[in-house]
Amino acid sequence: MRLLKNKHIVLGITGSIAAYKTVTLASMLTKAGAQVDVVMTESAEKLVAPLTFKSVTGRGAYIDEDLWQGSAHVLHIELGQKNDAFLIAPATANTIAKLAHGLADNLLTVTALASRTPLLVAPAMDGGMYTNPATQANLAALSERGMTIIGPAEGHLASGLAGVGRMVEPEELFGRLRIALSADGPLSGQKVVVTAGGTREPIDPVRVIANRSSGKQGYALAQAALDLGADVTLVSAPTCLSPPLGAELVPVSTAEEMLAAVLHATEDAEVLIMAAAVADFRPANPSGQKIKKAEGVPAIRLEAAPDILGAVAARESPPNRPHLTVGFAAESQHLRKNAQAKLSAKKVDLMVANDITSPGAGFGADTNAVTLLWADGRVEALPLMSKAEVAERVLEVVVDLLEEA
Ligand code: CTP
Which structural domains are found in the chain, ordered by start? Predict the structure, then answer.
């Protein structure tokens, strides 16, 4: 993952049972290419062994003893100054209070005080401790100083009670770190609209005409745009996927709804990426009531659904339409020829074409093999790669094209 590759992340762990979940986070970050150093308080050591973290990160898991020993006397300065992001998860009420008052009585708090990057803090504690005015005032003080407070969530607590105080899940912490790291990316301040999924056209209140699109490529594109700092609006037909953290989700179902959402969202957008599989045809007269079997096999007359890219292209030049438009071409034969024809007809700047019959590149797969076609005639055939990697390459080209414009 490009955003996290070789990024230096410091994870601070304090004495809450949620510390075991941070092992998962450390593993996720390491797998994504980050260099993760862990700093634990004495209480955290009682719950999870430093060796557990060392084993998943292949790097240091520092404890208070390291602050005082040998050549490591400037450890806290090194960890504090060299990180790209610093997250304390779980953060107990005690550590939050120390941070609020600038106390530095252990390796974690002294490192936090030395850190040059704004801290992310994920509280985890009993509901009563969380709502206590002292904790609330301490958290408010941290927010005022530019620290990011993540959660806590509501649910089952270690005490056996339910309430607000649970640390948010590792997936959300991962997403929040991504957002923190992408803040100054090349697309920061730019709005990117991405469409995803396959539209559904009603036959009656129960049945629809749908297609095989999973939405995976579109969601990966939204994530890749977020990783470059963009403000992302994800106009999505129904999928089984969770939208990437930080994207504004606009759920739609039909081509007509997607058209309205795209025209609205692109009024102030720099980029439109049309990855959705939009219906070309829809039932001309959908039934208001469920069609009954006893009435015999119905004849369903179809009519053309709106062509969204066509409608965007028909708009006057920017700002009424995006500076840059990316289309997708799903082809089962004559890939380049068909994609080239669509590129000209739909007036896009970049066409991402894929042969849906080639192994690993069809609907629903986690991989894709695409060919990129530029409006100026350039062509680049990418090998089979994950949809996330395809998305990163497409967004890299988007950044280049915006710079060239
Ligand atoms: N598209 C669109 N509106 C439609 C159909 C497609 O905006 N009603 C967009 C898709 O999101 C994609 C591009 O147009 O970016 C090409 O879609 P594709 O289905 O490959 O091509 P079609 O134009 O539908 O042509 P055909 O189905 O004949 O291949």
Answer: 8-181 (3.40.50.1950), 191-404 (3.40.50.10300)
CA of 307 to the centre of ligand 1 (A): 7
Of residues 83, 94, 211, 354, which has the active-site annotation? 211
- Ligand 1 centre to CA of 335 (Å) is 14
211 is catalytic: yes
Residue with CA closest to ligand 1 atom 27: 280
Mean pLDDT of the chain: 94
- Cα 355 to averaged position of ligand 1 atoms, centre (Å): 14
Ligand 1 nearest atom to the CA of residue 276, by list position: 11
The beta-strand segments (E) located in 211-315 are: 231-236, 248-251, 271-274, 281-283, 302-304
3-class state of residue 263 by DSSP: helix
Q: What distance in Å separates the CA atoms of residue 224 and residue 217, rounded to the nearest whole number? A: 10
Q: Which atom of ligand 1 is nearest to the CA of 348?
A: 15
What's the pTM value of the predicted model, to 2 decimals? 0.93
pLDDT digit string, tens, across residues 71-114: 555 787 888 888 999 999 999 999 999 999 999 999 999 999 99
Strands (E), 210-342: 231-236, 248-251, 271-274, 281-283, 302-304, 324-331
pLDDT per residue as tens digits for the range 317-337: 777 789 999 999 989 899 999
Ligand 1 atom with least separation from CA of 345: 23
Q: Which residues sit opposite 122 in a β-bridge?
A: none
